[in-house]
Predict the 3D structure of the following.
Amino acid sequence: MVTAKPRRSKSIEILEQRLMFVSPVNHVPGAQTCIEDTSLLFSSATNTQISFTDVDGPGPYEVELNAVNGTSSIPANATVSITGNGTDSIRIIGTLTNVNTAMASITFKPTNGFEGLAGLAIETDDQNGAGGLTDTDLVNIDVTPNQRPNNSVPGTQTTGMNSFLRFSAPSGNHFSFNDVDGPGPFRIELHSTNGVLQLVNFSGTTVTGNATNNITIVGSLGNVNAAISDFFYFPTTGFTGDALVTIESNDFNGNSDRYDTDAVTVRVVNGTPPAITSSAFRFETNHAIEFKFNHAIDETTLGNSDILIRSLPTNQGVPITIESRVYTPATFTVRYNLSSTLADGNYEYVLKNDAVADLNSLTNGFYAQPFYVLAGDANRDRVVNFNDLLIVSQNYGLANRTFSQGNFDYSANGLVDFGDLLIIAQQYEITLPAARTGNRFGLTRIGDDVLSTARSSRVIV
């Protein structure tokens, strides 16, 4: 007896055929991060290329790139069919090689202003979407907030009528900005009122409006900072009063809503701005600091907190107590009387940048001068005596010499001046060297005693 073979249904045969084929396999990078309002590139150059493989085909292949909270785009490619490029869903049809080539560079751009979790999904079909085998993968993309740039600008500046003002690093009043996340290119705008601005060096940047009151600079963070670190402000002819120089920084060539704006007041005065012409630390029983200005100032703006003393070379602040402040209009002199003394050592006294309105003689935001306090300083007892000369000799590198008071005039006129030391040098056959850099005798006074560089006409008696 012959047994009939069961008939196989067509659907079972199709299923068996499908089971013989292998699905395509997508190759995607791990989770990615990008900054708000910036693009993320998937490519071999960044080790983030998206591709697929398939051991049996048959193809043609259809790949869909679906963006979540953003869009994606690929370069034009004539070897494949592309639809929806630059949208949230791209469809690419072609051979395995050509589709992979088309996906060698994929740009994902999050929705403007979006922060949070986004993604890019890839779905690959090995039979042109006609019911073939598929593989689907998702790349998570964390879109982080874009931090705005931060400008750094100086305080109020002063210049004379019809006189330019230079903003530069050597002057201690330069502009700069920083951005912790970029991405750039950066766009900086400089604006001015009652005058124009002119950049000195702007190589590596694109500049429009130079020598006007509205300058735009585009470039990398380093190049733009170099450009704005040195520029001039020219007030309008005859103008006096307060003008403004404003900086606005944008971290994506003006296409981002993340920016920083700051303004600097430029005070244009009719006359010469106040400046410090000399200063001195007086070595008295209770010390004092004096500042002499080029003309009258509004001394009411000076406060006790505007003066400080620092120990050198550590720059450690030294506690001081200010007993009084005296302004002498006839000599344009301000004197701070201290109710304390200093131990022997190296110091500098500092006048802060905002102590005097319109003060323009400060470097790096403050005025500072070094000085010594040495044992035996005669001005502690307000008497000019031989110890004064011993201190001078130490500052001129002559401390190893033994000086003794003899029959020569060292302070007959009540002043310890350079001529006195020359007389001692002659007496002991010493060639007097130049004063050492940084000593307090580079100042105009030794305590209450005038220090003159004129050769004395006195002779040994």
